[in-house]
Amino acid sequence: MATDLIPYANAIGYSPEICSYLTADIGAYLKKVTPLSKAYSDIKSIPKPNVLVFNTNQCREVQDWFGWFANEFNVPLVGISTPRTIGEVTNGHITFIAKQMETLVKDLEKVSTIKFELNKLKEVLALSRECSELWKKVLDTAANIPSPLTFFDGTIHMGPAVVMRGTKQAVDYYKLLLVELEERVENHIGAVDNELFRLYWEGMPIWGRLRHYSELFASLNACVVASTYCNSWIFSAFDENDPFRSMAKAYTELFIVRSDEYKEKYLKKMIDFFKIDGIVFHDAKTCPHNTNSRYGMPQRIELETGVPNLVINGDLNDLRCLSDEQSQTSIEAFIEQLESN
Predict the structure, then answer these.
(1) Partners of 223 in the beta sheet?
(2) What SS3 state is found at 201?
(3) Are 272 and 295 in contact (CB under 8 A)?
(4) For burial by CB atoms within 10 Å, which of 84, 93, 228, 314 has the most?
(5) 293 lies in which domain range?
(6) How many alpha carbons fall within 13 Å on the CB side of residue 255?
């Protein structure tokens, strides 16, 4: 639906160059439509919130995005502003974010009938860490040859880690999934029949084309075994004994907010761990924060590791920025290159 909705946000002044999550969402509100109506007939549009909460650690647009809705609904807007291009995560970084989190508690209590309970937060955080640890084990099964799952599978299975983290349901989901994947590993069942090439996806998914690219890579006996994106919901630093500081540490360690030097070291570790033959960099037109192919990183990594790369031009949401034909030709040529190596 996104490509049809984005122009409505463009019409009120939002640039086509900015986050297409933002423009698609505001466009949906302006058009008074939501895909949730297909599942829930009583949901006609975005429900009015009591408060909007943002965190800029993944991108600065969320503050402007939620700010628009705060003005539209005339409700409070509160949030956390985070540092970017971090090398080493320091005590100063952690304190800076933790104090903002603690301030949020007071802001949220003003609009809520529920009082903050530290013990409840500790329970939720313990479940969140368990969810994260299980999710990491799920993704790590892809280090096996053949891989029992693909990056495209991961974009679907990450759902509970994204929207249900901190619940027992999410933990139970990944326990069940991990058992199935371990059985597949034991029985040498791969996600891609006759896996010949193992690829790493760096950058955002192309959400409107998951099936298309999943089937294309599989048809070329190539398995996209891992990605930076799916790893974004692994928070190993969570500690219920020090909730605010451990949350601050976990969110500040995220790949997206780190320096290029850190990112390149991280990617080289992923190449070794997952036994990668080639890297696909997605240059997402409207998401510069999650695009790492614009300042020479692919070339530097290839020079240091010998692992070739391919850059695909597209977008996470706005399919007008994507040429399926051009991308398919590039991918097929890339696999031919791997075959000749």
Answers:
(1) 198
(2) strand
(3) no
(4) 314
(5) 117-340
(6) 21
b/e per residue 29-53 (b: at least 16 CB within 10 A): bbeebbeeeeeeeeeeebeeeebbe
H/E segment holding residue 339: helix 324-340
Q: How far apart are the first and last CA of the chain?
A: 41
Please, is 232 exposed, middle or buried when counting C-beta atoms within 10 Å of its C-beta (0-12, 13-18, 19+)? Answer: middle
How far is residue 252's CA from residue 68's CA, in Å, rounded to a whole number? 26
Using alpha carbons, select from 268, 281, 335, 272 the residue that is nearest to residue 313. Answer: 281
Phi-psi region of 96 (alpha: psi -120 to 50; beta: other; left: phi over 0): alpha
For residue 44, being part of any structural domain is answered with no
If one counts the domains in the chain, the total is 1
What are the helix (H) ranges across 243-296?
243-252, 260-273
Is 110 part of any domain? no
Residue 43 lies in a domain: no
Q: Which of 82, 37, 89, 35 is nearest to 58 (CA)?
A: 82
Q: Could you tell me if 204 and 19 are in contact, meaning their C-beta atoms sit under 8 angstroms apart?
A: no
Amino acid at 254: L
Instruction: Please check whether residue 226 lies inside any domain of the structure.
Output: yes
Q: Which helix (H) or strand (E) holds 54?
A: strand 52-55
d(CA 311, CA 278) in angstroms, rounded, equals: 11
SS3 306: coil
Tell me if the bond preceding 146 is cis, omega within 30° of 0: yes
Say if residues 310 and 334 touch (Cβ distance below 8 Å): yes
**CATH number for the domain including 161?**
3.40.50.11900
Burial of residue 128 (CB within 10 Å: 0-12, 13-18, 19+) is buried
- Report the range of poorest mean pLDDT among 43-47, 309-313, 334-338: 43-47
pLDDT digits (tens, 9 = 90+) for 220-256: 999 999 999 999 999 999 999 999 999 999 999 999 9
Cα separation, 225 vs 216, whole angstroms: 14
Which residues lie closer than 8 Å to 132 by C-beta, 6 or more apart? 161, 165, 233, 234, 235, 236, 238
